[in-house]
Automatic annotation (TrEMBL):
This is IFM1 protein. The chain crosses the membrane at residues 45-67, 95-120. It comes from the Eukaryota. Keywords: Membrane, Transmembrane, Transmembrane helix. InterPro entries: CD225/Dispanin_fam, IFITM_antiviral_protein. It holds the Pfam family CD225. It comes from Grantiella picta. Belongs to the CD225/Dispanin family. GO terms for biological process: defense response to virus; host-mediated suppression of symbiont invasion; negative regulation of viral genome replication; response to interferon-alpha; response to interferon-beta; response to type II interferon; type I interferon-mediated signaling pathway.
Amino acid sequence: CRQARGMQSSVLPYEVLPAEVNMEELPRSTTVLMEDQPKPPRDHLVWSLFTTLYCNFCCLGLLAFVFSVKSRDRKVLGDYSGAQSYSSTAKWLNVTALVINILIVIIVITIVVLIITGVIRHMEPSSYNYGHN
């Protein structure tokens, strides 16, 4: 009997009240702990779509779009840490694609300006060639 009592007290998930305490005298209350839901992470889906359509250097925009969709799927399932991880990857892929494309635009504009100024210089007649034989 002693062994059964020891097993029973270790299994009980509650505290046994002393014999002198009456249940009717105890206040009746319920405590509910409310936890704030964490703010869902951004999935950067619109930015990734823009990058895919307009700045898709080496398919970085497409990869960003895939990671954004994965982030949205994780967010729907309630896995905010997984969604945050995919979201962060999509964000950095978008930033990288944007920086590379800005550099490409600057390089192309510079080359075009240099070509145009070189062509204009060659088209101008030199004043010292006229009248001197």
